[in-house]
Amino acid sequence: MSKTLTLTIDGQKITVLEGTTIYEAARQAGIDIPVICYHPHLTANGLCRVCSVDAGGRVQAAACVTQCAEGMVVKTGTEKVVHGRRTLLELLAATVNLDEAPEIQALIEEYGADPARFDGGARRTAPVYDDNPFYLRDYNQCINCWRCVQVCAEDAQYAFALSFDGRGFHTQIGTFMGDGMTDTTCVFCGQCVGVCPTGALKPKRQAMLEQGVSPDEVFQQTRRKRKKSKV
Ligand code: SF4
């Protein structure tokens, strides 16, 4: 039989199964913790840290990856926690183009973050990769949430076409040796595009329609060309 444990979140006593994360326990109790990199169908990696909470430790804990413990006391909305989230959102806005990230924009609004607070700092810049007929990769809009990598790997597709590239501030999602997408193990399933929260990955047809290309022209340029019959 699975073992249970009891903890307190925002003053509410909650009993959960061993192995439950703070984020899952809070959801069970109807307590909302914001997330960005977390996706309910993908392995959580605690990368964006926007779900950080006070769990009684020396530093705040990422709720999406921290497992509950017996007697743990969690506070999800202290001044320090809220301040941390606000700063994190301001740093994201300073370095990445979030124009097509409505969920992050909503958090910026909710936490009263000032997107211009770190104006003048270095921004992440990268070329837009238009190297296949199906989707574009604009890493100027990428927050390194790892969702696309995870869905391309053992969480769904087992294609392993995507990985991290670079170090520190220059870290970005890439392919093996920077190969174009058609030279990788990508099978163009589109699942990475589906889980991307920022518009960094976008169907080519959508991008062309947004640029004002007519639907007829879009279909001409992106549909599979049929071989002519010999008869
Ligand atoms: S491309 Fe999209 S899904 Fe992939 S890491 Fe960047 S923001 Fe996340």
Keywords:
14% strand, alpha+beta, 231 residues, 26% helix
Q: Say how many strands there are.
A: 10
Which range best describes the helical content: under 10%, 10-25%, 25-40%, 40-55%, 55-70% or over 70%?
A: 25-40%
Oligomeric state of the chains in view: single chain
Low-pLDDT windows of residues: none
CATH architecture of the domain at 128-222: 2-Layer Sandwich
The secondary structure category is alpha+beta
Task: Outline the structure in words.
By secondary structure, the protein is an alpha+beta fold. The protein has a domain at 128-222: 2-Layer Sandwich (Alpha-Beta Plaits). Helices cover 26% and strands 14% of the residues. The protein has 7 helices and 10 strands. The strands form 4 sheets. A 3-stranded mixed beta sheet has the order 2-1-5, with helices on one face. Strands 6-7-10 form a 3-stranded antiparallel beta sheet. Strands 3-4 form a two-stranded antiparallel sheet. Helix 6 packs antiparallel against helix 7 (215-222). The termini are far apart. The model has no long low-confidence stretch (mean pLDDT 93). The protein binds iron/sulfur cluster (SF4). Iron/sulfur cluster (SF4) binds next to helix 4.
